[in-house]
Amino acid sequence: MTKSDISxxxxxxxxxxxxxxxxxxxxxxxPVPGMSEVLIAVRAAGVNPTDWWNRARSMTIDRLPLVLGWxxxxxxxxxxxxxxxxxxxxxxxxxxPYPHGVGSHAEYVTAPARSFAHKPPGIDxxxxxALPLAALTAYQALVDTANVQPGQRVLIHAAAGGVGHLAVxxxxxxxxxxxxxxxxxxxxxxxxxxxxxxxxxxxxxxADVITDIDVVLDPLSLDSAARTRSLAVLRPGGTLVSILPxxxxxxxxxxxxxxxxxxxxxLVEADRAGMQAIAELVExxxxxxxxxxxxxxxxxxxxxxxxxxxxxxxxxxxxVEGLPAK
Length: 326
Description:
The protein has 10 helices and 16 strands. It is α/β, with parallel strands linked by helices.
């Protein structure tokens, strides 16, 4: 089956929660941009952990049926009333408002115009589609929240992952001394990104070998024991930023504050200014996404299966061209 009606589009949709096999390509109505919105013809869209988590169960999205995807790189197909930033034909990239603006794993998507920036001309849509959610997360954590400064010591957990490998580069662009945790096989990769030190989390307890850290970025830990180890390496006045919605006991939070340490739990936001800053880093050569794999949209299930291994470096991307439907 191929799509021919311009009022419809192909999208990867799930009718129920479950394994990657619940994802299927079907024909759905093509969206129309409303006030202050743009319609984007999607060329590439990153796949992030939040995608496979929400596919498997209700995490941040509690509705079905569901088209996943928050990353977008593509071409403006139409603009709604009031949009002045973009014109039809502009190449743009950005993140749909998280979490409820989901839906980029499709041929077209609508979103507020101010969720996007112009795509840097020096990268293709696959590179651009890999960046928004992960790069915004890293940028909002390290720059907007922790305000990393030159010479500060920054520890990044899961430093070879989607957020982590971009966080390494963003921290280095701020002049920080960067330490990353990853398996030994990924240490050369971390050094290629600019990391000053790499710690094998499988054989070494980072809390035994480093100290006087100014900022810790933690994309993984939900439990207090892991958090305690990160807090132990922070100097007074340091900051721990978790990028998961971490529930924390008020007594624990008060104890952290009493030590002069700041704890923040970040949920990424769509952010035009952040996307423009990311575009500038890309244009200067300070930031680039590593693409572990790119799959056509029809093979979204394969992308989810790969992502769920937890062993990838960088990002997984879906591409949207010549898409067959099931």
